[in-house]
Amino acid sequence: MTTQPAKAEQYRALGLSTFAFTLCFAVWTIFSIIGIRISEELGLSDTELGLLMATPILTGSVSRLFLGIWTDRYGGRRVFGILMLTTAACVYLLTFATTYAMMLAGALGVGLAGGAFIVGVAYTAAWFEPARQGTALGIFGAGNVGSAVTNFGAPFLLVAFGWEKTAQIYATILAIMGVLFLFMAKTDPLSEQRRNAEQTSFAEQMAPLRELRVWRFALYYFFVFGAFVALALWLPHFLMGVYGLDIKTAGMIAALYTIPASLFRVLGGWLADQYGARKVMYWTFFASMGCTFLLSYPPTRYVIHGMEGDISFTLTMSLPMFVMLTFTLGFFMSLGKAAVYKHIPVYYPEHVGAVGGVVGMVGGIGGFILPLAFGVLNDITGIWQSCFMLMFIIVLAALAWMHYAIRKAERVEWAAQSEQTDLPELAASHLFYPHNRPGAGGASKQRPSR
């Protein structure tokens, strides 16, 4: 970035992109509410409902790869505005669907809203210097609160107007925001560099994806974001099935999970700037393991054969305890989401869109696979808590891989008798990513805030 933008311009860009992303995320998760009514009308199984909820997440995930590249080439202002207008049209057309197959086809179009994330990441990162990117991206990522907007508001719209009118209201609001963004947002400061780099081949843009590190970041995001989206979609159905709540109450309680899992992403970005992404990821994974372990325990009746007869008791998760644990889980997942994206502008400053698109794509694929898996596990095992059992396995695998990679990097640091950075492998990044060799420019010259 040749000239540092004025703070007013930075805040303007951040505010517009965050608000736009909030609306996109609200649209992206709309099936968490209207899907329940559609399921009742069509008589769907849990597996079919899980697929319907997950289908928009698939489109939003896969589209992130291409949208990230297009944002690197053409700029976030145009891509973001056009994306919102296209998605609004798809949401409106969904209301004409009458069969399950048509619903799935319409859900693919609705899912384009999820691609807004990587567009906003690349657009927002371009406005801020590296030392403030973690905080800025944390604020932008708080747009995940759009799922809480849906959980709070959509049930009331659904009861009052039906699912078709609810979708049409969402489409209208998103279309208005798309037009406003095209006219109010400014071209980002990297536009000149982008024009000069337009001749870069697709293979060169995708070169960083050969690095194993990118795919490890993607696994982190598969849990902290993919599982977040999956659970945000699944919780209303879970609460209605386990605790017998009505849809409005289930939606409001589900929002108690999605709000901290969104808003505290701002805190996660600040913590990643101040203390390092490595520490934040450890906090996230250890806390998430504890929460998912407790949440995965189904109601169980024990019988102890005592000296004077059988002694029986039952262990079950009360609703207040469930709310507390999901709130805690959402809080730490929000920290992790910000910490993952703190890495990308530092390691790959010239490929934020491409690398961030892949990481976001894999994370979003988690949001597609997991709701479907939750439904399949329900139908196979008959245990509602099986969704948390699966989440526990995923977070355990992510923690194990991260810890192994960090220990491997630290052996290089110990051999040099120095600890140079708080980000995994950055001190030895030349062993993994040749462009970052000392003296070659790039991330090895940067020392992130600790």
From TrEMBL:
Keyword field: Membrane, Nitrate assimilation, Transmembrane, Transmembrane helix
Source domain of life: Bacteria
Keyword tRNA processing: no
SUPFAM superfamilies assigned: MFS general substrate transporter
Record localization: Membrane
Pfam families per UniProt: MFS_1
Sequence ranges assigned to domain Major facilitator superfamily (MFS) profile in this UniProt record: 10-410
Membrane-traversing stretches: 12-37, 49-67, 79-97, 103-125, 137-161, 167-185, 214-235, 247-268, 280-297, 317-340, 352-377, 383-402
Family note: Belongs to the major facilitator superfamily. Nitrate/nitrite porter (TC 2.A.1.8) family.
Protein name, per record: NarK/NasA family nitrate transporter
